[in-house]
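SEQUENCE-TO-STRUCTURE ENTRY
===========================
Question of interest: how does this chain fold, as expressed in backbone structure tokens?
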Amino acid sequence: KMNFFQFSLLCCLTNKARAMTPIMSVSHTIGLLHPVSSPAKSIMSAIRMTRINDESFGKLEYKNNFWRGKTTIKMFGVEKEILLSVDAYENTDFSHVQKEAFLNFIQNMENIMNKAEKHIYDYYMENYEEYREMIANKSEADQVVPNIHSVLDLKKLVEPTELIVRRVRKNGKRRLGLLCDVSWDIENGIGIKMEDEGVEEVGYQDIVL
């Protein structure tokens, strides 16, 4: 970074250069005053590497071992923008299987999410009584873990937060994970594990992390 003295000197020389010869560019003047060193070039290159605009996933930034961006899904009839995380090394190209997994999900979202919602409903019906027993106050239990009668009743209880495009394993399956916050388990939430556009399991979030 330039200090105040360097900036002032740059402005003076730039104005003088413009007056003396139209051919001289500001970049030449900057180069004389503040040449870009190899370490600086490396840092600038690294910054560019941590932000990309991928043709399949859109704008991504590398953070905490994932390429992270945004995507929009529709769940329980409500569209919501959530975090998109692609599991890949910083200097590695995304595999075609990962791209297919995401593209197939986007193209078949309604069908896949219908299956996911049904699995969440089944999971809830299997476990909600146990969660209700943990809450002494019945009025509170009715709000946090209410008796429900349809998939759409989950709309106020489940909120999607992150879609993970997972690494490819030897079996070559297209693997996704959807993370959700839920009213009945704020600490753990739930995870929906998907493979080849099918829903494999609903449970704690660590099943897809």
Notes: Residues 19-34 have pLDDT under 50 and may be disordered. The two ends are 40 Å apart (CA to CA). DSSP finds six helices and eight strands in the chain. The beta strands are 51-54, 58-63, 66-75, 78-86, 158-165, 175-182, 190-195, 198-203.
